[in-house]
Write a structure and sequence with these properties.
The chain is an alpha/beta fold and about 500 residues long. It has 2 domains: about 1-150, Leucine Aminopeptidase, subunit E, domain 1, CATH 3.40.220.10; about 185-495, 3-Layer(aba) Sandwich (Aminopeptidase). It is built from 15 helices and 21 strands. Strands 8, 9, 10, 11, 12, 15, 16, 17 and 19 form a 9-stranded mixed β-sheet that branches. The longest helix has 29 residues, at about 165-190. It binds ligand BES, manganese (II) ion (MN) and zinc ion. Manganese (II) ion binds next to loops. Ligand BES binds next to helix 11.
Length: about 500
């Protein structure tokens, strides 16, 4: 995709489509006033006759607008003037792209970047614009045969800006948006792939491919034998029931010499049947998404590499399949983690924490500046926060607040949840150092507390993305979250934000 910025009038631009906006009470937004003037009141007339909707998420495509050089004008609803925020802005851009589906639109000029939007300067507007465009263009047709639905053949995407100073910020925003969108796309693809394709070995191949030909990226894949030598008894107990070999995938992006890295650990359960504590049938197919933590950290390192950020980032992905069989771990089995702590596996369906704890212990060798694990860890988190916000838990108030603020800025929001001894007490075991489940109350938090027993001395945060990583129902599909949130943390840390 080619990006550009322009200070020229919307009506003068020869594009396949220009995006303009209207607010409630017939107020014009973006390049709409210019289009209205050039067309001698065409938009005003249509608004008065009720043919243009100002509701967020609505779009009307106009063709052959008099006095306007562009082939199409996409008029999107922006809601109440003065209340336009980043969320509505993204929704509006996506609505325009969706409305163009099926058309031969190759170049688009988005003039909504001229608007004043709560909490977003032109850098964030251009970035959100590119990310929203990427989301709206996304299709997962890899597994379909025959004639497939195709996205519009967009190859040139521009943003209108008021002056040259804004142009530089908008270009930077588009460039970062492009990198983040690439990471989001990778995360969605990996999530959407079925578990008979996206196995631990497949994830390892994807990681190797990402690093191939990039001088700043390296990938190392540890086998089960190597994990055994490291003493990862907890991780290996999860893979005991499957024929599919487990992998520990380690990626390093070196953009800042010998600085301490930020380490991202992603849960990579390529399918979670629950094991011997078998899950119920309905919607079990969605447990192919149980590797979305892994997908998001791989997506984030891909985004960082694409943006060439001056930072060091390591990714650690414990990748396993959780299956029942005669060799599978049984409720009551006791396993020894790499940290030396023993764990009574009271429920084989609480497997995410069993692989993450060994990945966290392994990550100590990197002396992380901060370590963040990302996991579709608990159904309890979905009950607590639904599909809107990622749960953020941390042993550092500063890191938790940093991630929270990053989520807001990136339009990929989280919400703080507690940790603490009063919750951790639920993990007491009569027979081992701890149990892997903590009873019915506060399940997302006790899972966090379990991980906290392996992060002493590290600045650590845990993101539970069980509600945010994918959508169920008619629009079933990966969301790519929290790639934007994590990318924002890294962009801010390395000073790459304008
Ligand atoms: N992968 C699941 C969590 C999950 C469930 C995410 C549904 C999204 C939707 C995880 O491995 C799991 O099964 N957790 C158990 C833990 C329990 C046994 C303590 C859960 O949440 O039921
Ligand atoms: Mn499970
Ligand atoms: Zn799971």
């Amino acid at each position: 995709m080619e990006y550009f910025t322009t200070t020229s009038k919307a009506s003068r631009r020869a594009a396949d489509c220009i995006i303009v906006g209207i607010y409630e009470r017939n107020k014009l937004g973006g390049g709409a006033a210019d289009v209205d003037t050039a067309s001698k009141g065409h938009l005003t007339a249509l608004m008065k006759s009720g043919d243009l909707s100002s509701a967020p998420g609505r779009c009307t495509i106009l063709t052959a607008v008099p006095g306007v050089r562009a082939k199409r004008v996409a008029v999107v609803g922006l809601g109440k003037k003065g209340e336009l925020d980043g969320t509505v802005f993204k929704k509006a851009v996506a609505a325009a792209i969706h409305a163009l589906e099926g058309s031969k639109t190759r170049q688009i000029l988005n003039t909504l970047t001229l608007e004043s939007v709560k909490g977003c300067d032109v850098y964030y507007l251009a970035r959100h614009s590119v990310e929203a465009m990427g989301d709206a263009l996304y299709l997962f047709t890899e597994m379909k045969s025959g004639r497939k639905k195709k996205p519009i053949p967009l190859s040139k995407y521009g943003h209108a800006v008021a002056d040259r100073g804004n142009a530089a910020r908008a270009s930077r925003g588009a460039e970062h948006g492009d990198g983040i969108a690439k990471g989001v796309r990778l995360a969605k693809d990996l999530g959407n792939l079925p578990a008979n394709v996206c196995t631990p070995s497949y994830l390892a191949r994807v990681a190797r491919k990402l690093a191939a030909g990039n001088g700043k990226l390296t990938t190392q894949v540890l086998s089960e034998a190597e994990m055994k030598r490291l003493g990862m008894g907890s991780l290996l107990s999860v893979t005991a029931g499957t024929a599919e070999p487990a992998k520990l995938i380690v990626m390093k992006y070196k953009g800042a010499g010998n600085e301490k890295p930020v380490v991202l650990v992603g849960k990579g359960v390529t399918f979670d049947t629950g094991g011997i504590s078998l899950k119920p049938g309905p919607a079990m197919d969605e447990m192919k998404y149980d590797m979305c933590g892994a997908a998001s950290v791989l997506g984030t390192i891909a985004a960082v590499a694409s943006m060439k950020l001056p930072i060091n980032v390591n990714v650690v992905v414990p990748a396993v399949e959780n299956m029942p069989s005669s060799k599978a771990t049984k409720p009551g089995d006791i396993v020894k983690s790499m940290s030396g702590q023993t764990i009574e596996v009271l429920n084989t369906d609480a497997e995410g924490r069993l692989i993450l704890c060994d990945a966290l212990t392994y990550s100590r060798r990197f002396k992380p500046a901060a370590i963040i694990d990302v996991a579709t860890l608990t159904g309890a988190c979905v009950i607590a926060l639904g599909a809107h916000r990622t749960a953020i838990m941390s042993n550092s108030d500063a890191l938790r607040e940093e991630i929270f603020a990053a989520g807001d800025a990136a339009e990929d929001r989280g919400w703080p949840m507690p940790l603490g001894e009063e919750y951790a007490a639920q993990l007491k075991s009569n027979f081992a150092d701890m149990a892997n489940i903590g009873g019915p109350g506060g399940g997302a938090v006790t899972a966090g507390c379990f991980l906290g027993k392996f992060t002493d001395g590290m600045t650590w945060a845990h993101l539970d993305i069980a509600g945010t990583a994918w959508k169920s129902g008619a629009k079933k599909g990966g969301t790519g979250r929290p790639v934007p949130m994590l990318s924002q943390v890294l962009l801010a840390r390395c000073g790459a934000l304008p």
